[in-house]
Amino acid sequence: MTARIKADLCIIGAGSGGLSVAAGAAQMGARVVLVEGAAMGGDCLNVGCVPSKALLAAAARAQTVRAGGMGVAGMEPQVDYAAAMAHVSATIATIAPHDSQQRFEGLGVQVIRAWGRFVGPDALEAGGVLIAARRFVIATGSRPAVPGIPGLKGVPFLTNETLWALRELPEHLLVLGGGPLGMEMAQAHRRLGARVTVLDGGAALGRDDLEAAAVVLAALRAEGVEIVERVEITRAVGRAGAITLQAGDGRVFEGSHLLVATGRAPNVERLNLPAAGVRSDARGVLTDSRLRSSNGRIFAIGDIAGRGQFTHLAGYHAGLVVRQALFGLPARLRDDHIPRTTYTDPGLAQVGLTEAEARKQHGDRITVVKVPVSGNDRALAQGHRDGFVKLIVHRGRALGVTIAAPEAGEIIAPFVLGIAARLKLSAYTSAVYPYPTLSELSKRAASAYFSPKLFENPWVKRGVRLTQRLLP
């Protein structure tokens, strides 16, 4: 060891969660050390949320030209895939200074660019430096999980970490995995001109509400994405430009490129967790309701905590840890108000319980309200008719909301606030939204819950008639 550092807080991982803890703690006066062996900004900035949404935006431009409509002739767009990927790179570069080492050092954070390894319950070694800290935060995230398909290791496949190096459009992209990432990249590449086949061992978008997933899958199929569900891939063979996947039922799928999008694995291997007395399993570090590990001095947040793989969830975790580590205040985890979104077009958004989950917990004591996108004037003006907002209500409050619609991730925002604050549905109906907007769908769904109680109740009608006779 060439140096020793004492700190109040040592954070391992400079992704969204780790950076949020570091910025908040340093600006409030704590001595903070941030350890990162890879790129600042982590997965989300460099190979995850930011590049995928940038490519989706480029693909949406191409689809607008192709689709035409409303008096505008559609035509096949001239796509420069390398330029689209250059847009991805430029977007990352524009955001990167906010997550940079220079910015965080300017905030007073000591940044060590090396991999960290625990050497005891209160000490970490990184880059020849021994760091002793009062508290540690593990925020090392996750990486693509590669299935053990025979032959796959010998095939040149892509993941979300390597996809962004492409500069030539795949002729035929095979996507292994029909989750959010797989479906987003399938639609993006189809719109940019590639043939695309998605293969899933179960149901595509299988975690989501079945009705909502059906809307999205129908839209992608209509655009030409081939989606094959409940297919078991038993072998992979081939070389660059010619890849073959063999299924257990004898079917064969051939493509020029293969994207593996079959889930994530926690980044725990380098940490030497046993030396710190930290327990882990296949999902990541085991934590309690306060995000503390089996070593009470060590927290885990974000993907590594095994409670979900969303940038906004990592940010939420960061706030809970700062509250505890800096001020010693109680903070307990909630998960009922954490949204998730698949950024296809139409999109799919969820907060709280799905209908199936709600029925499992509450049986017939719930009310399900479903409002079609076609009932929204802005949607009609933009040519959107497919999709819906589904509201699950129990005792006058929203238990969950499912949205399959254009800009689903934006439309769901009022419901995220409402569930987080445990608002009654009457709060949604009292809000006044600008007209015409897609956001009105949230108010319309809440109003639809009350409509039968007001307009189909004979006692309400009798009360109105009596009041009219008595009023001067």
UniProtKB/TrEMBL annotation:
Q: List the disulfide bonds.
A: C44-C49
Q: Which organism is it from?
A: Frigidibacter mobilis
Give the record's keywords alphabetically. Answer: Disulfide bond, FAD, Flavoprotein, NAD, NADP, Nucleotide-binding, Oxidoreductase, Redox-active center
Q: Which cofactor does it need?
A: FAD
For this protein, what does the record note about how its cofactor is bound?
Binds 1 FAD per subunit.
Where FAD is bound, by residue? K53, G116, T140, G141, S142, D303
Answer yes or no on keyword tRNA processing. Answer: no
- Where the record annotates domain FAD/NAD(P)-binding, the positions are 8-317
TM helices/strands, residue ranges: none
PANTHER family the UniProt entry points to: MERCURIC REDUCTASE (PTHR43014:SF2)
Q: So what family is this one in?
A: Belongs to the class-I pyridine nucleotide-disulfide oxidoreductase family.
Protein's UniProt keywords contain Cell membrane: no
Q: Mind telling me what this protein is named?
A: Putative mercuric reductase MerA
GO function terms (MF aspect):
flavin adenine dinucleotide binding; NAD(P)H dehydrogenase (quinone) activity; oxidoreductase activity, acting on a sulfur group of donors, NAD(P) as acceptor
Q: Where does NAD(+) bind?
A: G177, G178, G179, P180, L181, G182, M183, E184, G263
Q: Which residues form the Pyridine nucleotide-disulphide oxidoreductase dimerisation domain?
A: 338-445
